[in-house]
Write a structure and sequence with these properties.
The structure holds two protein chains of two kinds. Chain A is mainly α. Chain A has helices at 2-10, 16-54, 79-86, 90-108, 110-120, 125-136, 143-154, 159-166, 178-206, 210-218, 223-248, 255-261, 267-270, 273-282, 288-316. In chain A, helix 6 (125-136) packs antiparallel against helix 9. The two termini of chain A are 26 Å apart. Chain B is an all-alpha fold. Chain B is 73% helix and 0% strand. Chain B has 15 helices and no strands. The longest helix of chain B is centred in the C-terminal third of the chain and has 47 residues, at 256-302. Chain B starts with a helix and ends with a helix. Classes of the chains: A mainly alpha, B mainly alpha. Chains A and B meet through helix 1, helix 2, helix 5, helix 6 and helix 7 of A and helix 1, helix 2, helix 5, helix 6 and helix 7 of B.
């Protein structure tokens, strides 16, 4: 509002005094705002932009403690990257990361939508609210505790094995079985987060015009048909935004959780690009330049995926992030 | 919202057989999901107050067997757990205070249309959402700032999430009427005064949401502590828990008998520590749920 006013005045060349007054006012107004931005700008600069600058070491023969830019810097071009592509771990890491994400996405993306539609179709708002509260609670359990719970349930003497032994089966240490890693990882992630992810759809469904439902009922639509033809289309824009975002974050799966679940037995499937970066760069004999190159490779894949998802969505529907 | 829902349904409420089947299936589905969510939590609770032998023997499935609080007694004696608890509380409180000071004013400034260089600042904050330097450069920055192995390595990197900043901005844009701000200006209030005397009192919802988001994030995180802290006296609760809970199966060696004995001793502590560490957050949650939901909805306005 006031912008319109000030530009209107500012474009009037005759009134130089007001113009000057306005500039002063503009400055006086902006000073506090700029000061308010200083802490945030500083924090982002320190913890987000300085590391982006530090990515330069991916192109260097870098020893911990070296300055990032100095006359003595030994530039090696893409050598660290080609080394990664030839690493015996390259394909296993790529497929482990990719498979874990894709499989997680196939279950984890539709489930919250189904839950939201299902909760929304309940007759009693009160029941829906209570169930929603229950569904959201596990979101607040920490990763450490979640993985701890997994070991308690699926460990050699955990509940699941006790039941198996009770009916005469063999005890299996699921944490040492590579086949069990992905199902455990994905199902526990869903257990923890489907309720949380559903909130956004539930909020969208609450804004559906009741008139649409009334019209559909008059047309003789059943409740299930209304879910499919009224509720679902209403949340489609939200669905595509969420789709773009999850595709963009596809290769950035929760490596913190994978790291907690790793054992010698399941390392063949649980080693991801990001956990490998951590091990190469911060444990054992650190090879920081190499690890940074791998990390950079991973984030470039992410950016490319995001751009592809965004452009595709823009082409086929109205929604896009940018 | 409830009134709307009622209006939509009541006048034409005559369930056909098909609808009855639909509602039955829907109830069954939600009931099953509720069980799936609740049973693991319920089991942890009953296992923590049961005799460890009964838990290990598979007797505890639906109700506690031979009630005992010995697990809780044992955890009371563990000084590392309580030190971790205290550390986590300190880190969480500091993170919340600093993050509010960093996030809320910046969110307000970004929501002002007349802000100088607004476009620049927006881009400046958007870039880190999609691209980052990665783990190793981040570690090196912390190292060159001499933050490694101090409590600030845990607090400072967590004081601003760009998502939260944009959420705050969206809140201000949609919830503080521009006319009100303009009126205060005409009354001669300066921008600082407007922020503290007008905006902040109207923004309890976003303050609550942000405080909760940052608090839960800090309470539950372990990774930064794992890479930045060497001094066990500085460990937050989650790092202590990691050692208690996730003693990896492969490291438990020995003959069958000793393994079983190790499990017997370790598991009870595990059940109890899950409860002791998660209880504050989970118990607080139903009371603050509306704020969390509000937060998600504010975030979705942008989408």
């Amino acid at each position: 509002m006031s912008k319109n006013k000030s530009t209107a005045v500012a474009t009037d060349p005759k009134d130089a005094v007001t113009l000057k007054g306005n500039r002063m006012k503009h400055l006086r107004q902006n000073c506090p705002w700029l000061l308010m931005l200083v802490p945030a700008v500083l924090v982002v600069f320190l913890f987000n932009y300085l590391p982006i600058y530090g990515v330069l070491i991916a192109f260097q023969d870098f020893m911990p403690g070296d300055p990032i830019l100095s006359p003595l810097t030994r530039w090696v071009g893409f050598q660290n990257f080609t080394r990664f592509f030839q690493d015996v771990q390259f394909w296993p890491l790529m497929s482990n990361t990719f498979l874990l994400c894709i499989l997680g996405f196939i279950i984890g993306f539709p489930l919250p939508i189904i839950i939201a539609l299902s909760l929304n179709a309940l007759k009693s708002r009160k029941t829906a609210k209570v169930i929603q509260t229950i569904f959201t609670a596990p979101h607040f359990i920490s990763l450490v505790v979640l993985v701890g719970m997994l070991t308690l349930f699926f460990g050699r003497y955990g509940l699941v094995n006790n039941i198996i032994a009770g009916i005469g089966g063999e005890r299996v240490s699921y944490f040492l079985e590579s086949g069990a890693f992905r199902p455990m990882y994905i199902l526990s992630s869903n257990w923890q987060d489907f309720g949380w992810s559903a909130i956004i759809y539930i909020a969208a469904l609450a804004n559906v015009d009741p008139g649409l439902h009334e019209a559909a009922i008059l047309d003789g639509a059943s409740r299930f048909q209304r879910v499919i033809h009224v509720d679902l289309p209403a949340i489609m824009p939200m669905v595509s935004v969420m789709l773009i975002m999850s595709i963009g974050g596809l290769m950035g799966v929760g490596y913190e959780k994978a790291l907690l679940m790793q054992t010698d037995g399941n390392l063949g499937v649980s080693e991801l690009i990001a956990t490998y970066v951590y091990k190469q760069g911060l444990t054992g004999v650190p090879d920081q330049a190499y690890a940074t190159a791998i990390g950079l490779f991973n984030s470039i894949i992410n950016v490319v995926l995001l751009i592809i998802a965004n452009t595709t969505s823009k082409k086929f529907s109205e929604t896009s992030l940018f | 919202m409830p009134a709307k829902a009622k209006a939509a349904k009541s006048p034409l409420m005559q369930s056909s057989t098909g609808d009855k089947v639909f509602y039955a299936i829907n109830y069954a589905f939600l009931g099953l999901m509720t069980l799936i969510i609740l049973y693991p939590i319920y089991f942890i609770i009953i296992a923590s107050i049961s005799d460890p032998d009964a838990v290990l023997g598979g007797e505890v499935i639906l109700y506690p067997v031979r009630l005992t609080l010995s697990g809780f007694q044992k955890i009371l004696e563990r000084s590392d757990v309580w030190r971790g608890y205290l550390n986590t509380i300190i880190y969480t409180v500091l993170t919340v205070i600093i993050s509010l000071i960093v996030t809320i004013p910046a969110g307000w400034a970004l929501s002002r249309r007349e802000l100088m260089g607004k476009k620049f600042f927006m881009i400046y904050f958007i870039i880190p959402m999609f691209f980052g330097g990665g783990l190793i450069p981040f570690y090196n920055v912390m190292n060159s700032l001499h933050l490694i192995n101090t409590m600030w390595s845990i607090v400072l990197p967590s004081v601003l999430s760009v998502w939260n900043l944009f959420m705050t901005r969206t809140f201000f844009e949609s919830s503080i009427p521009e006319g009100l701000v303009e009126a205060a200006r005409i009354d001669g209030a300066g921008e600082v005064r407007i922020f503290f005397a007008l905006v902040i009192p109207l923004s309890k919802a976003i303050l609550a949401v942000m405080a909760l988001y940052y608090a839960v994030g800090q309470w539950n995180s372990y990774f930064n502590a794992m890479i930045f802290l060497q001094d066990a006296n500085l460990y937050p609760l989650q790092l202590v828990l990691k050692e208690i809970l996730i003693a990896s199966e492969s490291t438990m060696g020995g003959s069958g008998e000793t393994i079983l004995e190790q499990y017997r001793l370790a598991n009870q502590i595990k059940y109890v520590s899950v409860i002791v560490s998660s209880a504050p957050v989970i118990m607080l949650y139903p009371f603050v749920q509306k704020y969390f939901n509000q937060g998600v909805m504010i975030g979705s306005l942008k989408g």
